[in-house]
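fyi for ur records
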Amino acid sequence: MTNFIDKAIAFVAPQWGIKRAASRVRLEAFERAYGGANKGRRTDGWRTAGTSADTELALSGALLRERSRDLERNNKHVAKAATVHADNLVGEGITPRANTGDADLNKKIDELFDEWSENCDPGGQLSYHGMQHLAAREMVVAGEMLGRQRIRRMSDGLKVPLQIQMLEPDHIDDARQSPSASRTVVNGIEFDGIGRRTGYWMFPRHPGNRSQWRVGDHESRRIPADQIVHLYEAQRTQCRGAPWTAPIILDVKDLQDYDTAELWRKKLEACLVGVIIPGEDDGLGDPTQSDPSHLGVAVKDVKGKDVSKMEPGVFAVAHGGKDVKFNSPAVTLSQESFNRLSTRGIAAGIRCPHVLMTGDTSQMNYSTFRADMLAYKKFIRSIQKHFILKNWCRPTYGWFLSIAQFMGEIPPGPVPVIWTFPRFEHVNPFDDMRADLIAVRSGFKSLAQVIAEHGGIPEQVLGQIKESNAKLDEMELVLDSDPRNVTLQGQLQFTDQGEANADSA
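which gave:
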């Protein structure tokens, strides 16, 4: 929209007027492009930074971990969310099964791995799957977890002399700088010229265990990168992880303080039942009294003892009281709705379904629950395949195969592997199983794929089915659950075996 100045300039110098009008149009279009980038009263005081993720973590990572761990220790919602995530990310374990094409070799490798997985913890407290669970939980609470390859002596009696030492991210020396021009160290991790990880600068002992430190433990040492597995979720181009609780730390602390204040308010209200008020002719509080104890009304309990502190159920008596005033506790009807609204925001920030974090099903039906679970399942599967499988499971299983081949326990060469993830419990088992059945019959899924999705190992499950079917045929038994002889509706199949079974019946 032109004004008087624009019209005057256009009348005197039309070319300048055209340029002025075009510039105004471009300026207005630019201001409308991204409202969030506009500057004005609505964005005053909004301070932002263009720093990289690594710089942000270098400045705030340690404090975020400390606060996140404190909440996980002392806040029920954060503790439950961390457990829910770990149980769904790992559960009973993400299991590798050899798939070489040789059944005997597969069985040998799998049995050797199962034996090693029970002895892979130097402390003897965790199995391989227990380590996965601990790593997943620490990724949620602290943002990351590390494991170090430890080669053992033959005298230790291990068939595969390999163990994995679990290391919290505090072991990494965040302050370590580049040792040379050919190496770059970012937040304690060393990179070569093309960005490959070549080393980790780590303290030999946890910095928090200063009572156990020895001389030289305060200096970090370089560990080759191929001896370290590093689990974290990359949300930007970054080399370290941030706690999953980072978006909700302030919200959880505020809600926790609010609940504490509300609890103490109710405690104080419950302490005082009532007070007996003195009458006008009691003569108490006379400033002419020389005894300082008479300068005010003496408050005692019903037994005549001075009330020096408030306790539950106290009925205070003012000396010479003539009237009774009962305490009237306030009723806060909005606390429940406020807490529910707050916990929904906390659950969204930590990416955990609200019902799983709080156990509150009061405002949930089957459809909303199913929608939450389907979205959560997609999130869990993405973390499992993009981060846990890539950065923890495959490298550690590769360590196992390398040492086992070096020891001559299995033949050298590549070993294809199938990873079995923990299954999700069905929201509606009948409908979900029918959907799997239709998918297999339509050719959209294989039977082995469905078995793996349910947490089973296809070769083992199919082998057990084969053995069971052979045993049933040997004993001439026909079960209603046998699809070779009975349809889903309970009718006999029209096959040679089915006709034989029908004749015998």
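The radius of gyration is 35 Å. thats all i got for now
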